[in-house]
Amino acid sequence: MTALRWGIGVLSLMLAVGAAGCGGARLPEAGAGRTLAFEPGVPNFDLEALATWQEGTPGVDVYLSIPRLSLVFVEEAAGRRYRARFETLVRLLDEPGREVLQEHLRTDTVQVATYEATRAFEPLLRSHRLEVAPGAYVVEVTLLDLESGQQAVRRQPVEVADASAEPALGGIRLEGRRPGAAPAPIVSLHVPADVDSLRAVVEVYRAGRPGAATLEMTLLRFESDTSIATPPYYVGPSFGSLAYRGLRDERPDTLQVSRRRLAAEAGEAVVEFSLPALDPGVYRVRITARPDGPAPGGRLERVRDFTVRSPWFPRLVLIDEMIEALAYIASERELRDIRAGETPWERKRRFDAFWGRLVANRQVAADLIERYYSRVEEANLRFSTFKEGWKTDRGMIYVIFGAPAYVESRIDAEVWHYGYVGDDPLSTFVFQRVRPFPADLVFEHYLLERRPYYERPWSRALERWRNGSVR
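Predicted structure:
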């Protein structure tokens, strides 16, 4: 059965909205390097720094992935092309991150032919190589949008081993090919589900250490929560449940184990492991190197975590995805009726009829649909973790109530204020950060402190959505 796609292109001004400041996308701490969630108004990007050795010379390969959507484009030639300009400042710092050891500045100009191309989530890829001596470093990259004057910073530690003295294993690089594109590194945390020929690439260096070795790649899948957030006045998830923890790491599913033998005389090797087609979920690639006999240092290991998302992420394109996202404003009976359609076209007809029953005026209904799915897509950009952002507690509140007036950030909590009059409990939402998932995974997980008195503001907000008066 052919799935029905029904994209409505509602993300055009997403990065301009929310200037009031929804705090769901904080600057990643040193070591993250990747955009955990989009921060409105700044040039979001992902960083990966990998230790490599080229012809025996140690260095760091720096990869940047910059979605066009996060850059500001200026119209030129009466709308016949659009241009964005940005600078990248790559710095190599000592391990404490205080002393600048190297600094490289680059200016880029990007031109596209259509306005739609400026809204694409597909990334621009940039790379830079830093030749360094063996040691521990921090790579810091600042991206400055020359049109908006806004900038963002990413940092990532990297350790370059002395491959002339001991065996070394480089970092894991994911590579793949999107439809119609050439193979390219995948830098971001999220991997599109339509990537073809996905593979994990690692470099091994054993100069001065003869002897055969075995390289082993293990692909793991973590069980993760995919449930849709429940209303704010419901009872929250029980302690220790999957919805509470977000991820389970005790017994991940092993999807693939592959091994490569390295000959005794091989001093340097680039090894590729092909990965299977993967469903949406949370994954880890683990690569280990073991010498056949006893050797100083013994086993070496590297890991790379990633998620697999819809090819159209953060947009909702398939009609069944759009129906699922109605969970916050449609009743269970209404959802059952829409889903009962036997074909995508019948479900699309029932989907349209649902909105038509809410608002008789066709233009008002169209505006309401655009507003609702804009919120859903924005929530995906801002709050996606191990599941889509709109399904999270923060995503639910954002979709129904919009961006808060201001956000109060605490060590392990976010407080969203929808009013400026003190701490009115009816207009204040507290999200606690939950930590009992694997400490070495990068995902943030926040749960709403649910309260019975939220039923009244929630019901009022739903009424505004269902009568078309939401703003």
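Summary: The chain is about 15% helix and 40% strand.
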